[in-house]
């Protein structure tokens, strides 16, 4: 019955949003409360779970989304994003600019959670698409695919690293294998899947408040070096922290590096730097720069609420112990250890929405099986692959993708949910192939 209640909740959510045109945030809160009550929670408990879900989701993401949007708006309005985009287009050409952004996203994503990497790189996606006269999703789909693939497969990203610890896997070996698996997964689920669509079906209206489509003259923009440096400051700081955490875990500097390497602080530092590099040094007044920042926050108010609503839905499913029900049911099956780890993570991902919860829960259940002649690194990768499968309305990442690309739910499922499922399945097949040789 818990699975039936989840299905009813998802169907009701789609009905409220697509048929009755109810606001997505309101719909998410209503459905979350109803699913919680159907799952046996007292109405007061369901309400507390909804509050906790919104609070915990926005507690993690509000600063990241806020500072990331400020940085993106500063980049866009100053011409910094246009400078980077024009340079990439001139360097790689229109035919290869998609791959250039995918590689950029792959590198950026290694140090960041999916949501953070998405916010950091989205201004470049918009600007490159406009500059190269390409549909936004032609660039955006494979870029998002690269970010979510790293989220599932590649240490030192926090998710795969945590799963590796549970399986007692070697981080270095898992990194090497994760890279081997990630490349075909991104190419098939991101690049090739995007190219299956007709160009006109990849068109999307960029939210006007998130992006300045005005093209600036060469002398009006900051230089390429300072633009790319400012944009990559968060990545650099988070990479430094990840490096220290893996190779120098006992260092006395770790807590200080951890502070500046936290996504929120790293982005704050980038925003402060951007006030100068994208603002004051570019001939703008401090009042003008602050107006840009204020406009950026106003543009994401509803996006924040909708993401919080997705977190409420996820929290209801966790607090009603749906994950334990699914885990107990799957544990008694007769699947191979690798397929079992992937399947538990995949079912939890679809049911709960959280890739991190799905991966870590699957790892906890399947970890004892890793010693039975199966590589712990491949088991960890299987749990990571399963944790990024079919993303839908109970996942905050789904709503971030939908709102920033200004898509309908149906088009988000076609372009995003199917893409991540292909990546997950390709990842599993690569893991099973590697298992034949290990």
Automatic annotation (TrEMBL):
Protease keyword on record: no
Pfam families for this protein: GntP_permease
One GO CC annotation: plasma membrane
Transmembrane segments: 12-38, 97-114, 173-193, 224-244, 256-280, 292-313, 413-434
Record's keyword terms, sorted: Cell membrane, Membrane, Transmembrane, Transmembrane helix, Transport
Record's subcellular location: Cell membrane
Membrane topology: Multi-pass membrane protein
GO MF terms, alphabetically ordered: gluconate transmembrane transporter activity
UniProt xrefs under PANTHER family: GNT FAMILY GLUCONATE TRANSPORTER, HIGH-AFFINITY GLUCONATE TRANSPORTER
Stated family: Belongs to the GntP permease family.
Full protein name: Gnt-I system high-affinity gluconate transporter
């Amino acid at each position: 019955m818990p699975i039936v209640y989840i299905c009813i909740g998802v169907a009701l959510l789609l009905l409220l949003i697509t048929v009755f045109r109810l606001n997505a945030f309101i719909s998410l809160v209503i459905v979350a409360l109803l699913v919680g009550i159907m799952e046996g929670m007292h109405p007061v408990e369901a309400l507390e779970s909804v509050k906790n879900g919104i609070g915990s989701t926005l507690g993690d993401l509000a600063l990241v989304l806020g500072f990331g949007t400020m940085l993106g708006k500063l980049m866009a309005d100053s011409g910094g994003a246009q400078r980077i985009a024009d340079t990439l287009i001139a360097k790689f050409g229109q035919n290869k600019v998609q791959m250039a952004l995918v590689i950029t996203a792959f590198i950026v994503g290694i140090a960041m959670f999916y949501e953070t990497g998405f916010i950091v790189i989205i201004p470049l996606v918009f600007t490159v698409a406009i500059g190269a006269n390409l549909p936004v999703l032609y660039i955006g789909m494979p870029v998002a695919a690269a970010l979510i693939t790293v989220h599932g497969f590649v240490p030192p990203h926090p998710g795969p690293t945590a799963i590796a610890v549970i399986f007692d896997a070697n981080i270095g070996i898992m990194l090497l294998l994760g890279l081997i698996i990630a490349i075909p997964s991104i190419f098939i689920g991101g690049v090739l899947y995007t190219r299956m669509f007709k160009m006109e079906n990849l068109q999307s209206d960029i939210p006007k408040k998130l992006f300045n489509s005005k093209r600036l003259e060469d002398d009006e923009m900051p230089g390429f070096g300072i633009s790319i440096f400012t944009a990559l400051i968060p990545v650099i700081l988070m990479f430094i922290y990840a490096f220290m955490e893996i190779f120098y875990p006992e260092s006395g500097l770790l807590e200080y590096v951890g502070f500046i390497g936290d996504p929120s602080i790293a982005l704050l530092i980038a925003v402060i730097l951007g006030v100068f590099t994208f603002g004051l040094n570019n001939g703008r007044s401090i009042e003008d720069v602050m107006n840009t920042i204020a406009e950026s926050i106003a543009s994401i108010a509803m996006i924040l609420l909708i993401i919080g609503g997705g977190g409420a839905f996820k929290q209801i499913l966790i607090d009603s112990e749906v994950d334990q029900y699914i885990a107990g049911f799957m544990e008694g099956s007769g699947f191979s250890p690798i397929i079992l780890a992937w399947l538990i993570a995949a079912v939890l991902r679809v049911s709960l929405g959280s890739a991190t919860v799905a991966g870590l829960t699957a790892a906890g259940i399947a970890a004892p099986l890793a010693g039975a002649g199966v590589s712990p690194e491949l088991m960890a990768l299987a749990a990571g692959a399963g944790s990024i499968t079919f993303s839908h309305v109970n996942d905050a990442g789904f709503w971030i993708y939908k709102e920033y690309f200004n898509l309908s739910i149906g088009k988000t499922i076609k372009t995003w949910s199917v893409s991540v499922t292909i990546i997950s399945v390709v990842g599993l097949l690569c893991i099973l192939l590697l298992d034949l040789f290990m």
